[in-house]
Amino acid sequence: MVFAIDASAYVEAQEGAKSLKFQTEKQQANFELGVSLMVHSWNTLDTAVVNGWGGPQSAEKRDWISSIVIDLFDEKLVDIDMIEETLLNAMIDEFDVHVEDDSSLAIADKILEVYKQCFDESYDEIHAIYDNWKASQENRSLRNATHIHVGEDPDNPDTPDEDEYDDDSEADNNVPQLTEDFVMDDATPEPQGPIVDEDGFELVQKKGKKRY
């Protein structure tokens, strides 16, 4: 089934708000996760990263693209054209790739949808996509491992030949590790008893910051 993309779609800050940035840590963290997932799902960009069209820092450049898209939401209004233009310009500047299909528009539309979901505090779809992303990375790592041939150094048989490692495995290691602290439901830690030092004095424990 093909879904039409609203080329006039936008999100706007609520009255009195200075930007579209979320005020709660949980909403903002899930939004940033969602944007990163959408950027990573862009096949055109993934092809550029895997083939190193942006040089040895290609993976880092992809992460940078995620960050500049997130920064757009420091404004009071963001529309689909702003996001798409940011994606297209980044592809030209960082990878020397001119995207001629509508894939960038589709990614921009998905990013706006992620924002709306986080505004409604609805994270199920984002978490499901994240789980699929992790599974795909594990499968890719397993495939790469089957192509790795470890040669023996005649002077030191226990030392692997580093030149034999597949280049794709290095690209996988550059994939950002997305924290799961905000993905899990809130949990209340079990109470702990007082800690007493060797002189019999009770130690005061600092309270940790609550994670959302």
What does this structure look like?
48% of the residues lie in helices and 8% in strands. It has one domain. Helix 1 packs antiparallel against helix 5, helix 1 crosses helix 6 and helix 3 packs antiparallel against helix 4. By secondary structure, the chain is mostly helical. A hairpin with a 5-residue loop joins strand 5 and strand 6.
Q: SSE layout and pairings?
A:
Elements: E1 10-12, H1 25-40, H2 43-50, H3 58-72, E2 77-79, H4 80-95, H5 103-119, H6 124-146, E3 152-153, E4 156-160, H7 167-173, E5 195-196, E6 202-203
Antiparallel strand pairs: 1-2, 3-4, 5-6
Counting helices, strands and paired strands, the structural category is mainly alpha
Unreliable stretches: 160-178, 184-193, 201-212
Termini separation: 36 Å
- Overall number of structural domains: 1
Number of strands: 6
Fraction in helix: 40-55%
Strand order of the largest sheet: 1-2
Major sheet: 2 strands, antiparallel
